[in-house]
Amino acid sequence: MQDLKGAVGIVTGASRGVGPFIAERLAMEGVRLAIVARSEDGLRETAKRLGRYGCEPLVVAADISDEDDQRRIVDTVRRELGAPSLLVNNAGLEHITRFQDATVEEIRKVILVNLFGTEALTRLVLPHLLAAGRGHIVNIGSVAGRTAYPYGTINSSAKHGLVGFTWSLREELRGTGVGVSAVYPTLIADVGISAAWQGGRRPPMLGQVTPQQVALAVLTCIRKNRVEITVSPVMERIADVVSAVSPRLTSWVARNTGVYGYLRTVADARRNSDLHHPQ
Ligand SMILES: NC(=O)c1ccc[n+]([C@@H]2O[C@H](COP(=O)([O-])OP(=O)(O)OC[C@H]3O[C@@H](n4cnc5c(N)ncnc54)[C@H](OP(=O)(O)O)[C@@H]3O)[C@@H](O)[C@H]2O)c1
Hints:
By secondary structure, this protein is an alpha/beta fold. It is built from nine helices and nine strands.
């Protein structure tokens, strides 16, 4: 999609982390936005920030893993803004943990939000895009969905699912005017899930990117109909390519450069903190 001015777009997970940056980038292009997350306060903060670009987003406080909420999101957007033509599935959860320490409820939640929520919301939005013969869906995946990501195993399995969802749906929709893309960030600096990790010094192989880089990748996917963009420093982009040919080699490198050890330390630090501050 080239001309985004006046298009109606939905960004999930826009109350904190990288979501507000994605919303901001689209607001700069003149997209009429609906922003979604559970925290209304967080969404109001984002709305204030978007005001700088003359954007008054529609705030929809909703849980994307809940089927009634999914319908309410799409109905409210249709009623208040008109038919949507853009959807950015950004909302996500992560539990960095040794897999055997995760509760069934934690596994369920991650899969429901990261995979089911994305697919179900897309299914409800899609008829509007198809009717217009124009639109774009961007799924925020992760490098954890491209390769082994021990201790982020639950999130990794959901994000691997998003890769299949993106490629398959994109092929199904070929020729309809509706594009589907995925963005795979590595660790994001300053905001979001991994910014608060405690695992000591990050190994040099594990890079960081800015939330603005992720937001720009979303815009590029929409504008150029790119199927996927990995947002990471160059070493990880090389690893991404190598991984397609030899996942074993990528795992060997990550294991031997301290990446997996670092993730284990983060998981154990989290477990110790949960033991001391049970929720
Ligand atoms: N940060 C990273 O290093 C990193 C790296 C790779 C990929 N990613 C991906 O980037 C995306 C955003 O991550 P982030 O780091 O910005 O995370 P974050 O700071 O934890 O923000 C997550 C967002 O998702 C929303 N959310 C969570 N559960 C929800 C639900 N059930 N219904 C509606 N909204 C929900 C949260 O809002 P509420 O809590 O208010 O609902 C929040 O707005 C995720 O898909 C994540 O997997 C992040």
